Amino acid sequence: MPPHDTARDIYRGALPVVVVSLVAGLFAGTILGSDTMRAGIESVPGLLLLLPAFLATRGGVYGSLGARLSSGLYQGVIEPRFELDERVTNAVLASFINGMAVSVFIAVVAFVVLLVLGQTGSLLQLVGIMLVAGFLSALLMLSVLVSIVFVGYRRGIDPDNLVGPLVTTLGDVFGVFFLLVGIRVVGWLM
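Given the sequence above, the corresponding structure tokens read:
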């Protein structure tokens, strides 16, 4: 992949991804502002506490995976192919474990904050919602991130231009949606 020599080249490479990210972010806001999501937030004490942390950690956990993939591609230690590769497998597995652990941690912290504030809530309900949302977002983010980075790299698109907007967009749009799914699933089970 040839290096970008000018700011214009970098700008032109990043602009389409940023525009798609902007439009998708507006869609995430639409989901968040929906009557269904508001009802879900009102029905689960502590959900509004954990929402920003959940969305932010999607970027942190999966952004580091994207950076690792991008660096590995540029260093030549991984190939942009969909085959078993120990480096890619380990990075994906570590990201999955981190994503799930952080999801449970966020639920526990939200529950503790509720207790400190003298409010009631259900630790089991918060953990259940976060496990569902964390698992679904992990599956989506891992598969889409690896695919987009590899395919983009093979087509001459700088993965560094893809990772940031891709991770934040997927994390926001699907994180909000999967929290809603988690509310429904846990509601059916409890």
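The mean pLDDT is 89. Try to locate this feature in the token string yourself.
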